[in-house]
Design goal:
The chain is 55% helix and 3% strand. By secondary structure, the protein is mainly α. The protein has 33 helices and six strands.
């Protein structure tokens, strides 16, 4: 290092001696700089003079920009070149970049961050860092750096990546200089050095300026949009009116022919128009009818569109894409006087009278006039009579089959108080499931069907907590029952043991066809035991977590919010576990089991058919077991 610096000093001294007229203080020849900075070893900094050839600074001397160097060797720390010496006009424009201000923010890009350092090329050169095709990469150095954006509080993820997937990004990447690049949309006042945030009223991406920004390229569409109702609302300051980016997107704008585009024929109705036109707040504010999407979906056009027909009429086919006006406006494409022309794009030869009478959007209830309405009513009556008759027949047949089963010789399985215990549990559990899930899935159709469209959250919560208290009382009742003689016998018989595991394995082998007969079960099968102990566990868990959620203020004050969130998760997923277990396991064993057809009636009468009992509890009929039951005075009616 010292040898190289000494060589630089010797070379400078020789040149000063030989050419005193051309070398002045601070005007060091480029050859002296090159002696160090073009060394192949890259020490201290490798910068070739050839990098200036063809650049906008071609012909400049090193010290024209590095004015702070007056002697060689120079110090290790040098002041950065001051571009404002020559570019005062640009410096006057570059006072702000986004939310940052020059001289106040340390995160603003410097000249060389965007333009490069030595090989600075005109913006029209395809190799320039600020050429339209290269701007995504240049801007992406900062705007794709997620850590950098997070530090600045910018919550727009991957704007460059999304832009490159859109029509503009693909066009610029393909060499089309006229396609919109970063500067075209974000530059204020036509200056690429003036990038303002969307909150600035003069920013081209400010909500009220977006149509003008897009209009730089799409002037005809801008005029159409601003003449339409949406443009009129934006012009008068209504921020809930849609502008270009609401429908087309911001960076990843796709062609309408792309099925992924929100304005494609396949998606425009649901993805673009519906979010506003099905909004209760907006419909009330602007006095618009509701249910437009549903009435369109139920129409011929909507059904064909959902079937994949991209030529059938959609929202923009009738209302227009940009110059959208209400039907009361004589210039509207859906005004009565213009319907013949609008519908005639597809339905040639349609008379004005027929066009005026055609109802595309019926009320929310569907068709209310014409042949379609008559057929709809006929089908509704037909469905009610046919399906209602089928349901009535099935119900009568099912009840008759139950009566047939109950008329057979019976074996008592539950005493009267046990039946009541089961009934209390069954009713409270069912109500808890319905009200609990309706509180979680507040807007579900079935919740609205049961509790009304207004929701009734307070009523749901009241019924839910009331049912929980009933279940807890039933659980306490059962605990008292277990202290009785009958209860102690029940507890002994329901206790799990190794035989249960053998029986479970035996049933699996039997159902797989690996053994001829099923294992003989005693008073309670392994299935019933599993259900009972799962019920005990579930009741304890649901009661404790439910009471914690009920009295959450007291709980949070003592154990903190973290425990409450844990209890909420346990309560919710334990409810799912219990509901699905009852729906799949218990309902099959009691009702859908072929051996129990049409059902095991013991949950109603406490008794079950003797032949069913012998099939499912063969080991309970052994002499030793029967004698034991009789000694305890617990004979079953046979």
């Amino acid at each position: 290092m010292m040898k190289k610096l000494a060589a630089c000093g010797v070379a400078l001294a020789v040149m000063l001696a030989l050419a005193p007229a051309t070398v002045r203080a601070g005007n060091i020849p480029d050859a002296v700089c090159a002696d160090c900075h073009e060394n192949t070893g890259g020490d201290p900094v490798e910068v070739s003079l050839k990098s200036l050839v063809g650049s906008v600074h071609d012909g400049f001397s090193c010290t024209d920009c590095h004015t702070g160097i007056t002697t060689v060797p120079h110090g290790p720390e040098l002041a950065r070149p001051d571009c404002t010496v020559c570019h005062a006009d640009v410096a006057a424009q570059y006072t702000q970049h986004g939310r940052g201000f020059v001289g106040k923010s340390d995160s603003l890009p410097r000249c060389q961050d965007c333009h490069g350092s030595h090989q600075i090329l005109p913006h029209g050169d395809p190799k320039s860092m600020v050429h339209a095709s290269n701007l995504p990469a240049t801007c992406g150095n900062c705007h794709e750096n997620q850590e950098f954006l997070k530090r600045l509080g910018i919550r727009f993820k991957h704007p460059i990546e999304v832009y490159q997937e859109g029509v503009h990004g693909r066009a610029t990447a393909g060499g089309k200089d006229t396609a919109a690049s970063c500067n075209d949309c974000h530059s204020a006042g036509g200056s690429s050095h003036k990038m303002l945030p969307p909150g600035d009223p003069t920013s081209p991406i400010n909500f009220f300026n977006i149509s003008k920004t897009c209009g730089r390229c799409h002037s005809t569409i801008q005029a159409e949009f601003e003449s339409g109702i949406h443009g009129q609302l934006v012009a008068r300051g209504e921020v809930d009116a849609p502008t270009c980016t609401h429908c087309h997107g911001e960076h990843g704008i796709l062609a309408p022919t792309d099925p992924r585009s929100p304005v494609s024929p396949f998606r425009v109705a649901e993805a673009t128009c519906t979010p506003c036109h099905d909004s209760a707040n907006l419909n009330e504010k602007y006095d618009l009818p509701s249910g437009r999407l549903q009435s369109y979906v139920d129409s011929y056009h909507g059904l064909k569109s959902r079937a994949g027909d991209k030529t059938v009429a959609n929202c923009s086919s009738c209302h227009g894409a940009h110059a959208i006006l209400p039907s009361s406006d004589p210039q509207s494409s859906v005004a009565i006087a213009n319907l013949n022309k609008t519908c005639g794009h597809c339905h040639t030869g349609m008379s004005p009278e027929k066009a005026a009478k055609t109802r595309i959007h019926s009320q929310a209830g569907g068709h209310r006039s014409g042949l379609a309405y008559i057929i709809k009513v006929i089908y509704q009556v037909l469905i009610f009579l046919v399906i209602g008759g089928m349901a009535a027949y099935c119900l009568l047949d099912y009840m008759r089959q139950i009566a047939r089963v109950m008329a057979k010789k019976q074996v008592r399985r539950m005493e009267a108080d046990e039946v009541v215990q089961h009934t209390v549990l069954m009713v409270s559990f069912t109500v808890l499931v319905i009200t609990g899930f309706s509180l979680r899935f507040y807007d579900a159709w079935w919740a609205k069907l049961i509790f009304g469209r207004e929701g009734g959250a307070e009523v749901r919560g009241l019924i839910h907590r009331g049912s929980a208290l009933v279940m807890i009382v039933g659980a306490l009742w059962h605990m008292g029952y277990l202290l009785t003689t009958k209860g102690r016998v029940f507890l002994r018989d329901i206790a799990p043991n190794m035989d249960d595991a053998k029986q479970a394995l035996g049933m699996v082998m039997y159902n797989l066809g690996k053994r001829e007969t099923p294992p003989a079960m005693r008073r309670f099968s392994f299935v019933e035991k599993a259900e009972y102990w799962a019920l005990i566990w579930g009741t304890v868990v649901m009661a404790l977590t439910g009471l914690s959620l009920w009295f959450e203020k007291l709980l949070v004050a003592r154990v903190g919010k973290g425990f409450l969130e844990v209890f909420l998760v346990i309560h919710y997923y334990e409810a799912w576990l219990a509901f699905l277990a009852i729906l799949i396991w218990h309902m099959y064993g009691v009702i859908f089991n072929p051996h129990a057809y049409p059902m095991n009636p013991s949950w109603i009468t406490g008794k079950m058919p003797e032949e069913m009992f012998k099939h499912e509890h063969a080991a309970a009929q052994s002499p030793g077991n029967v004698d034991k039951v009789k000694r305890l005075g617990l004979e079953r009616d046979v």
